[in-house]
Amino acid sequence: MHITFAFLFATTAAVISCNAAVCASAPPASSTQYWITQPVDHFGGAGGATWQQQYLVNATFYQPGGPIYVSTPGESPVNARYIDKSHFTSLAQRTNGLLVTIEHRYFGASNPMPDLSGASLRFLTIENALADFAAFIRVAKRTPSSVFPIPVVANARVIFGGGSYSGNVAAWMRAKYPDLVLGAWASSAIVYGRLQNYQFDLSFGRHLAQLGCAQRVSQAVSEVDTILLSKNSTQLANMQAKFGIPALSASDSAGLLAAIITIYSMTPVTMVGDQLGSGVCSFFGDTTIKATDAYAAAVRSTIQQAGLTQQALIQIGDSSLGIDNYELGQVNRVWYYMSCTWFGNWQIAPPRDTMLKGYRSQLVNMAYFQTNCPKKFGSGIPVPVDVAAYNRKWFSNLNGVSNVFYTGGSLDIWRDTTVTTSYGTILPPARGSLAVLIDGATHAQDLGADYPSDLGSVRRARSLGDALVKQWLA
């Protein structure tokens, strides 16, 4: 009963700030910012305090009776590309739909609290995040004129979509609010939590193996580990200079190298190429060059191609920066808090007792990550996070949920946290739901913008999803 009243409060508290002159004219640009007032805590824990949540609208294709396609960037700031340059844009055009992308609390400009201290982050819960989106959808259905810049028919059907963590949100919204969300497109949704996510590293290795350089990359990582584990400051400094990375501790250097070497694993594989091949494996083809030298060349090239300054590398690699900084806009700190309190998914090297080949340093282990949790967010943060409880609550609630389209790439680095794992589909089929493994694809490729160079497998997956959405709408 308390939860029901809290949701009612969220609905009545939702207020839109919209310039009357703009709202009365033709659809404004998709980059136009809109704001909705939300409770800091939908469950009454913040004394009725409120905050402003940002969203963007693309009303170009809308015709009366068309659906509303809702998305969230998840752990990224809101951007017009989510409604202008995604597969949902094409789908909206064909179905006379309206597109909305809503910023997730604590990311971008949507901040319920004035800082990112541990005390402020206590309102970053899955329940609150989902209630934010539910509150918006309720208003959009009941009084659309208060949130949209053009006339929209009341009680429009809503399809929620997202990739990666925002794919989780899409699936959870369908599971928790089926009265508000007709269906969900969950691309590469990382719905299954793992405390020790060394499967992330193994997925990376499978992609390298397909490109023919897995053995050499693993060898190079092992050779660099000899230096990192030696505690020899001179050798460490020489190695850092060779790789073009800043003078960090051995463990932070290991973490930085792991982040750099996997950058291209998230880029789409297309008919014209695979950037992991050109960005990493191409450096390991000449076997007359030492594996470590090839590794260093690949890292230096990636730093240059990505335009990463030394200060940017410090921010990526230093496990304190971006975590100790309480100022708003510290994405790393917010995501770290979610890992500490929600789903774990610590991206570590395969533990030695698994006897599995790894592609990141042994220094990138559980101690490297989770010991920071109580240090950064307060002594009340449990270590380790109870991933089993998370899965019981947030993975199990997806069992039997209808009208969800799950996709995952066979080369997705997050594959073993998705529904389409390397061990098979881990959710039984439900009415109106479908899980598709996209051969040769990486992370959330199907929700990207449609291009002629897209893999045939990606196009086929989109066709299946489009047909399913039309079935839901019918």
UniProtKB/TrEMBL annotation:
**Family that this chain belongs to:** Belongs to the peptidase S28 family.
Family matches, as Pfam families: Peptidase_S28 (PF05577)
Alphabetized Gene3D superfamilies for the sequence: alpha/beta hydrolase, Serine carboxypeptidase S28, SKS domain
Q: Which InterPro entries does the entry mention?
A: AB_hydrolase_fold, Peptidase_S28, Ser_carbopepase_S28_SKS
Q: Where is the signal peptide?
A: 1-20
The processes (GO biological process) annotated in the record are: proteolysis
Name of protein: Serine protease
Entries under PANTHER family matching the protein = LYSOSOMAL PRO-X CARBOXYPEPTIDASE, PROTEASE S28 PRO-X CARBOXYPEPTIDASE-RELATED
A GO term for molecular function: serine-type exopeptidase activity
Keywords, alphabetical: Glycoprotein, Hydrolase, Protease, Signal
